[in-house]
Amino acid sequence: MSDHYTMEQEEIFSKVMRAGRRTYFFDVRSTKAGDFYLTITESKKFTNDDGSYHYKKHKIYLYKEDFSEFKDTLDEMINYVIDEKGEEVISERHQKDYKKETDDMPMAAETTSEDSETDTSNFTNIEFDDI
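Below the sequence we write its predicted structure tokens.
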């Protein structure tokens, strides 16, 4: 086992953010020289056909010299998305009771608060199988 591996495994400061099937791990780690850097790991849970599950992980390393530009770029991208689409989640995939049928199944639009006064008594319930 190399020194780098041992040093990288040392948890200096960590936070976990759970988001549905995804979990994000934010970890402050130490370089061999004793400086700090950040790793951000996305772990996504996949269920196999037999009911067992596995995780796929993706990790990025963020070093101090890139913190300011990374933060500015992330803020810019987040603000762009919110300015263009608002903070409301459009996809039903993000609802807790959403049941995945297939990856290419069309998603129904979510009702917004502006639509809440619409009379829905004449609407027909449509199942995904009917589309």
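The helical segments are 3-9, 64-85.
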